[in-house]
Amino acid sequence: MARIEVVMPQMGESIAEGTIVKWHKKIGDQVKKDETLLEISTDKVDSEIPSPAAGMLAEIVVAEQTTVVVGTVVAYLETDASVAVDVKPAAASAPKPAAASPAAAPAPRPAQQAAPAAPPAKGRFYSPLVLSIAGSEGVAMEELEGIPGTGEGGRVTKKDILAYVQARKSGTPPVALAARTPVAPAAGGSTAFTPGAADERIAMTNVQQKMAAHMVASVQTSPHVAAVHEVDMTAVVRHRTAHAASFERAEGFKLTYTPYIIDAVVRAIKKYPLINSSVDATTIVRKHAINIGMAVASENGLIVPVIKHAEEKSLLGIARAVHDLATRTRTKKLTADDITGGTFTISNYGVFGTIIGTPIINQPQIAILGTGAIVKRPVIIDDAIAIRSMAYFTMSFDHRVVDGLLGGMFLDAVVKNLEGCDVEGEIK
Amino acid sequence: MATMTYIDALARGMWEEMERDPSVFLIGEDIGAYGGAFKATKGFQAHFGEERVIDAPLSEAAIVGASVGAALLGMRPVAEMQFADFVTCGFNQMVVNAAKTHYRWHLPVPMVLRLPTGGYIHGGPYHSTSPESWFFHVPGVKIVAPSTPYDAKGLMKAAIRDNNPVIVLEFKYLYRRLKGEVPETDYIVPIGTAELRRQGGDLTVVTYGTTTGFALDAARQLAADDGMEAAVLDLRSLMPWDKDRVLEAVRQTGKVLVVHEDAVTGGVGAEIAATIADESFHDLDAPVRRVGAADVPVPFAPTLEEAVLPDTAKILAAMKELARY
Predict the structure, then answer these.
(1) Which of A28, A66, A71, A187: CA 20 to 30 A from A284?
(2) Strand A46-50, strand A224-232: pairing
(3) Residues in chain B within 8 Å Cβ distance of A157
(4) Which of B281, B324, B325 shows the shortest C-beta gap to A128?
(5) What is the ipTM of this complex?
(6) Contact (CB<8Å) B325/A151
(7) Model pTM?
(8) Cβ contact B283–A128 (<8 Å)
(9) Neighbours of A249 (CB within 10 A)
(10) CB contact under 8 A, A127 and B281
């Protein structure tokens, strides 16, 4: 009579969710108690889950390759033998099982019972000799991890690695590599730690994973040097204030500081075009187009949409492009083309109140400008104290290509372009 | 070539050296008319006379001390302890006077100290001691440990001819149980050279003395049971020990089991294992394992003695574990 729930089990106290890899039974199949019903995968282990009771698999609630949180009902078992096989509607007519009937539906026991031996690939012990042989025979660590071990606990013995090396030399495709499962590279690398019971595990979104990998790669690729200049934004602030209302009326969106900064950068790049480059081994590739990426923090992580051919655009053209990209970032309508092909990036962390930052280069570019918050400060001008709208701009540059002289001159040009803003000038 | 017992081979070595060199003489308790507690020197006094085969008073300190003095004056004494256990009473003479004289005064002390060693004979705690570790630690003393009649004669002769104090461990269990071919020729076994008793590629047993035979039996059983081949390296000399051969064995098999009758703690095997870890770490495919006696005096009751001392079954179990690793 009983219709019992099969739930996603808790595979270790730090696991919050699991993915159903495979259903071993079809709807209508009979299953014995403790017989494998499904296979799940969590970020710790892959496990076969035994059926909590004998009966018929009445309903599969969660399909294969779907991830659900621990405790979610993934299927229903019908333990009443008299119920016909194809009684899908029975689900509706059968009374909903009382929540308080745990005795009838024991949840599968957690990890310590079902935990299978972890695949030996990671963290396996290698004797000094095996490592010596691997070193002298040029067997990479990831290759070594794929060699099946015949020693105690699956240890790779001297004989195992010698046989592998021999097979490789004689051209026999080594079994090991064919059999091994590729190890997914951790997005940003990871450091071993033990999460506490109350700690929450939050899966990184694709965007977050890509950001992590990208940041690690950039820091490893480029020797970063940061230069900080002070910029007097008073002229720009006045210009924007003077034009804000008419601009919004004409264009339908607000005028921000970003187009001014992009315009100043583009003009500085035209003066120092080497900034607009990438490194190809021992060659510097100077880009013809000036495509300015602007880092935008979104709910899902950092996205850098790119204003293509900024060198062909006026301040108005840049403003429209910035607005278009910012809108489509928020509405998630960016195309792949919108976020690729950048040659220089600007990160305006000043909007968060940050006054000085040291941004990480957006590879394969060689420089990035970080713009701090515009703050009114007392400044000495001609031996008099004046109130000016000031900001600190940081340029992080790749010292493989850009030295302090070029970096400093470029940043100075950006500053001069902004400070020289014609307050009376029209936006066109 | 004659087949003779281990004890006869030892005696043969002494006899030949006494005939060859008049400065060689024997000293010990009841070694003369009685022929020694184990009859190693039976017939020596009748042939060489009382001056060269001296019955000493019941004082190990006097026996070792007189030997040191005689050696300093140009003689080559061969002193017998009735049981190795009793050498403790002569310990000071051995480790202070015999061992250090050369370092302090540049005077050689060419003496031999014969120590009937070890258990398996139901001798109880005062007659079954393995004393090698006491002397292994002392600079200036050589130690040899023959496991065959051939080596017994060859190492005895080498010990007598050596200009340093040399301890000859005579494994009592082997005295009359072990027979082997011993050439009548005048040969020596160089001190400090190990001998490979059995070839094998899967692991190496490093051993000496009585346990050499046990290790060989275990190796044959391992081959029969598991098809694994164990090499057996007999050290033959403990000081100096043949480091080159041991490290070569590590390179060949990557797995080493050190076996000795003496207790594991602070035993010769500890030094060998440490040296392997120190100098040959990258050749190791498994931890260096040791089999030896439990850390208790050797008990009298045969069942307890069996439980305490290493035997073929214990060695085989350790070999199998190491082979599987």
Answers:
(1) A187
(2) unpaired
(3) 285, 325
(4) B281
(5) 0.70
(6) yes
(7) 0.53
(8) yes
(9) 8
(10) no
Q: Give the relative orientation of helices A234-251 and A258-271 as an angle to the nearest 10 degrees.
A: 120
Residue B240 — pLDDT band, cuts 50, 70, 90? very high
Which of B154, B182, B210 lies at the terminal end of a domain, its last residue? B182
Give the position of tokens 């600079």. Answer: B139
Strands of the A67-69 sheet, one edge to the other: A46-50, A36-41, A17-23, A67-69
Task: Report the pLDDT value the prediction gives residue A114, as an integer from 0 to 100.
Answer: 34
For residue B45, what are the domain limits? 2-182
Which residue from B284, B324, B325 is facing A128, i.e. has the nearest CB? B284
Residue B236: CB partners within 8 Å, gap ≥ 6? B144, B145, B146, B147, B151, B155, B189, B193, B194, B195, B208, B242
Domain boundaries, chain A: 3-114, 128-179, 209-419
* pLDDT of residue B271 exceeding 90: yes
Query: Rounded to 5 degrees, what are φ and ψ at A202?
Result: -120, 115
Strands (E), B9-128: 24-28, 53-55, 76-80, 112-117
Which tokens sit at B40? 């190693």
In Å, how far is A135's CA from the nearest CA of chain B?
A: 11
| Fold observed for domain A3-114 | OB fold (Dihydrolipoamide Acetyltransferase, E2P) (2.40.50)
CATH number where B200 lies: 3.40.50.920
pLDDT tens-digit series, residues B163-219: 999 999 999 999 999 999 999 999 999 999 999 999 999 999 999 999 999 999 999
What's residue A1's pLDDT? 54
Please say if the pLDDT value at position B63 is more than 80: yes
pLDDT at A177: 42
The pLDDT score that the predictor gives to residue B41 is 96
Give the CA diameter of chain B.
59
Find the CATH number of the domain harbouring B134.
3.40.50.970
**Residues in chain A closer than 8 A to B281 (CB atoms):** 128
Structure token digits, residue A299: 């709910």
pLDDT tens, position by position, A166-221: 888 877 645 444 333 334 444 455 566 677 778 888 877 777 777 888 888 889 88
A129 and B324 in contact by Cβ < 8 A? no
